[in-house]
Amino acid sequence: MHTSSHLVPPTSVRVPSAVWSASSRSVSSKNAGLGTCVSFYPDGNKLVSGSIYGTLNIQDQKTGAVEVFNGHTDIVQEVDVSRNGRMVVSGSNDKTVRIWDGASGERIHVFEGHEHWVLSVGFSPDSSRVVSGSRDRTIWVHYNLELDQWRTAMELEGAQRLDSHTTLSPNGTHLVTSNWHSTTASVYDVLTGERVAAFEHNGNVNGIAYSPSGKFIATACDDRTVYLWEAPIIEDLQNQVSSILVTFTHR
């Protein structure tokens, strides 16, 4: 049983166009290849990017040094860094999810089993779980038992076609997913695999994010609107109604 998303009259806020001025620097490597995705390390001093050649490139923003992690055999679609900066996870068109030592580049674990491209990956806030979404219409939750002994403990069936975005709640109990070709964002209970909420939109959902408190979910839609929703609460799922609180409309 999943709760329906209930719309309450939202407050509409215009987001003015803004021009940002910031200094930038470019760090490149002959081995880096064309970039496909990027994520910062928590300290902000390094970032990891994926490439069309299956490499991960760790770039030090202070020194300009670049380290290349090799292992994937096809395009890297997404990367993420654990909150403690010790691990990096990557998903690729080679159908694998790989976990790396964030400092040495040593491969810690490889998950095989997705039957199509892995389009999204992400760590839970405590770094004990990794989620992966694939074009095979499945979402997997992988657990770190101890001493980097990882295993896949749950497969969420019925995912929409081409799940491109997967985000765990800050406490790791819920997972919200969406994709570029659907007007629905879905929330799953990580422990049971049950879909507990579905957020309907007037256009395709292009982005999702949890608030740091875990109380709200933001979705970006191609109707030029950002929606803010009440997130399902695990203690009261039977009576939970998820409502739109506010929308932000781009000019």
Automatic annotation (TrEMBL):
Q: Which PANTHER family match?
A: TRANSCRIPTION INITIATION FACTOR TFIID, TRANSCRIPTION INITIATION FACTOR TFIID SUBUNIT 5
Q: Which SMART domains match?
A: WD40
Please report the residue spans annotated as repeat (WD): 69-110, 111-141, 198-230
Q: What is this protein called?
A: WD40 repeat-like protein
Q: Which SUPFAM superfamilies match?
A: WD40 repeat-like
Q: Which organism is it from?
A: Paxillus involutus ATCC 200175
Record keywords, A-Z: WD repeat
